[in-house]
Amino acid sequence: MHPAETLPQLRAFAREALFVTSTGTHLTQAEAAERAELSQDAERIEFVWKEPGSGSWLGDFRIEEVLEVLRMCPNLECLAARKLIEQDVITHLAPVVAKAMPQLRHLDLTHISDQPLGTRCLLESCKDLISLTMARLQFESRLLVGPMVSRHGHSLESLRIHECARVTSQEVNMILSSCRRLKSFYAMAGNYVPGWSMATASPILNINDMAMVPEKPGWVCKDIKTLELCYSGMDTNIGIPEVLWRQIVQLQKLKDLRIYRHPCCEEEAVHEKESVRQAVSSWLALSDLRRLELRELRAFVDEALVKQAKSQWAKLEWIRCI
Q: Which InterPro entries match (predicted)?
């Protein structure tokens, strides 16, 4: 039985489609057929691409068959187009999304091959995206930020940018100064993995760029609840620059704040603690804050400041200085 023959019931009710590679997922033909023959209220379709030597049966899907299935999914709300490297699927997806998927609101672009034009067309074919993930794209991701903000800035509530080449302070500030409905924003470059050292990560927000253009409008995402940023600056003695913490203190609905200072020239740095004290003291006004993580800032923080924060933040669950 071919996969395309097992999906007629499923596809019309699908809410989510997921493209994945077959690494770690070796399905037998019987298992794949059983997965596809789900009840009519099933919400998820997976297209598993075969990698060399994987032996995955679902790798026999052809682009035309995938597109045919997706054309029959008018209720699709979430599309995870992950790791589409060997097949030029992105270019073919855009017109299908534009014509057959009016409900699509959540898009995951992770590890896409060198297809900037096709990826941009896919972004522009969507209407009113609510959440977007751009991770490990194999081209200059900043080419997508302008069109993304122009097309979806009014509707985006969640945006994740991870290990994307050439995304700079200009793009980050454009997002935070344009996307008013944003509730969650994650911006990280390099090879950062939670819990690992930041030594191999690279900053995505350069504080000097913010300081050079003070006349620019501030961040407008006043409803944001989760903010994660990796930043750097030329002055290695300053823990949290004023131009950054003053923007953050305006975000009164923050619940989860995680900022990562990019370590550089640490052996020569004199850890000036006043900037962090001012930042944390000002953030005490963020009455809804539940979690605060200051990564690569431990040398800038004293115990008295931590005790003050814990005693004055009524809703604080934890504060970490790593």
A: LRR_dom_sf
What predicted TM-score, i.e. pTM, was given to this entire model? 0.79
Measured between alpha carbons, how far is 17 from 15 in angstroms, rounded to an integer? 7
User: Could you tell me where the beta strands, DSSP code E, fall in 116-267?
Assistant: 131-135, 158-162, 184-188, 205-206, 226-232, 256-261
User: CA–CA distance from 219 to each of 82, 111, 123, 164 (Å)?
Assistant: 30, 29, 23, 22
Class of domain 168-322: alpha beta
Block mean pLDDT (10 aa), the chain, length 322: 43 58 41 41 55 42 73 83 63 88 88 76 93 77 84 96 74 90 85 42 66 68 94 71 89 95 61 86 94 90 87 89 85
42 conformational bin, left if phi > 0, alpha if psi -120 to 50, beta if neither: beta
- Degrees (nearest 5) of the Cα angle 254, 258, 260? 145
Q: Which two tokens mark 46?
A: 């997976």
